[in-house]
Specification:
The chain is α+β, with helices and mostly antiparallel strands. The protein is built from 13 helices and 23 strands. Strand 22 and strand 23 form a beta hairpin. The radius of gyration is 24 Å and the shape is globular. The mean pLDDT is 95.
């Protein structure tokens, strides 16, 4: 993609309304534009990152045996009245009426609707277990939206829902999603900690929040530092096998959010040198809530004995749009964003330092053709800006690699390859640089 054709509205100054680094850098790098409090347009660079995150989430959900569907953003109030949540949810729910005076809401979550979908189509234990998921926009009318996409009102979420005959099956589904989440966040280059948490308005008797440690986080968190050294389950993990040992390893060490923190237990279970008390950013949460929704909605399945009983369920959320901000909080320096390669909008920034020079134009054309042939996403800075401006822009938007082509280097048969995360710069022949960039 040529920068001259791209839409990248860079801001030179730090926006005054941005309180944390991710909000500031997303606005400066032309990733988002605020349309109203807590509501943003996703501009091309931001959308590219959002889609990369979506793809990772989707691949891991599918690998874990979940099946994707898509539910509407607007829901009937009557559905929520069946579970008693319409009046109980609170002012965060946006309530509206259509032209026929039917009460509706902009969905903040989908437990009620997915249970109605299940209820209409499933009758027997032979059709279980099931895990259904979607990646969909949601709305919660936060009283004080702040921190950009970290606490917006409109947000993109992956929400999954499991259905099982009994509690044992539902716990297995919980473990399946728990392990899947470990893999999802690791693939994005994040070190995640599952922490015991309150169930909140979703309900149930078991929940874990998946937390990134960060000084700018909203949650107070307490954990054993040894949890940071636990191995991530491999790609070929057997989701149909017993996942209990993996989950037990991750949950046997102390880790809890401030809402459920037990100071006495923390001190008793955790050596002093391994106690971590800091703040964190929640990027996902899993819940087991049994028949909280199936019982009032009469979502029943017949067991092997022929007796009908309420289905056992859980729900599992990942904040897809929130992750964009969280990734920046975890990966930045004074110059700008540092994207992990798996979620970067482009892998390579190709900088032509002297547009119009025959040799540099030709070398950049060869590089662009080779990168495209190799399937490498790249952004070609073909503008006539000064080299310093080009370097600053590439550092700001955080692409993993910068391929810098200029007359001086070419006269010696070399180009410069910079690795954004480390700042390492090497001079080497163009063909060798291209081979490195094309490597998986």
């Amino acid at each position: 993609m040529r920068l001259s054709r791209y839409f990248l509205p860079i801001l030179r100054e730090n926006p005054k309304e941005a309180e944390i680094v991710s909000h500031r850098l997303m606005l400066r790098a032309g990733m988002i534009r605020q349309e109203a409090a807590g509501i943003y347009s996703w501009l091309p660079l931001g959308l590219a990152v959002l889609q990369k995150i979506e793809n990772i989430v989707r691949e891991e959900m599918n690998r874990a045996g979940a099946v994707e569907l898509l539910m509407p953003t607007l829901q009937l109030a009557d559905l929520w009245r069946e579970t008693g949540r319409y009046d109980a949810y609170g002012p965060e729910m946006l309530r509206i009426k259509d032209r026929h005076e039917r009460e509706m809401l902009y969905g903040p979550t989908n437990e009620d609707m997915i249970t109605a979908i299940f209820r209409a189509s499933t009758r027997s234990y032979r059709e279980l277990p099931k895990i259904l998921y979607q990646i969909q926009w949601k709305f919660r009318d936060e009283q004080r939206p702040r921190f950009g996409v970290m606490r917006g009102r409109e947000f993109l979420m992956k929400d999954a829902y499991s259905f099982d005959l009994d509690e044992a099956g539902a716990r297995r589904a919980y473990h399946r999603m728990f392990v899947s989440y470990l893999r999802i966040f690791a693939r994005m280059g994040l070190r995640i900690i599952p922490m015991r948490a309150e169930t909140g308005p979703i309900g149930g008797d078991q929940s874990h929040e998946f937390i990134i440690l960060a000084d700018t986080g909203e949650s107070a968190v307490y954990c054993d530092s040894a949890v940071l050294d636990l191995p991530i389950p491999p790609q070929d993990v057997d989701y149909d096998g017993d996942l209990t040992p993996i989950v037990k390893a991750w949950t046997s060490l102390y880790a809890a959010t401030g809402d459920v923190h037990d100071a006495r237990r923390f001190e008793a279970e955790t050596p002093a040198e391994r106690r971590v008390a800091t703040r964190g950013i929640e990027v996902g949460q899993v819940f087991y809530f049994g028949d909280k929704y199936s019982k009032p909605m009469n979502a029943l399945v017949a067991g092997p004995d022929g007796v009908e009983r309420p289905v056992q369920s859980g729900s599992y959320g990942v904040g897809v749009s929130r992750l964009v901000g969280a990734l920046i909080e975890a990966n930045h320096d004074e110059a700008g964003i540092i994207w992990p390669e798996s979620v970067a909008p482009f892998k390579v920034g190709l900088a032509n330092l002297k547009v119009g020079d025959e040799a540099t134009d030709a070398a950049c054309a060869r590089a662009a053709a080779a990168l495209e042939k190799a399937g490498v996403d790249f952004l070609y800075d073909d503008t006539d800006d000064r080299p310093g401006a080009k370097f600053a822009r590439l550092d700001l938007i955080g692409l993993p690699y910068q391929l810098i082509v200029g007359p001086k280097g070419l006269s010696a048969g070399k180009v410069e390859l910079k690795t954004r995360a480390t700042g390492e710069r090497v001079e080497l022949p163009l063909e060798e640089a291209l081979e490195r960039l094309a490597a998986p």
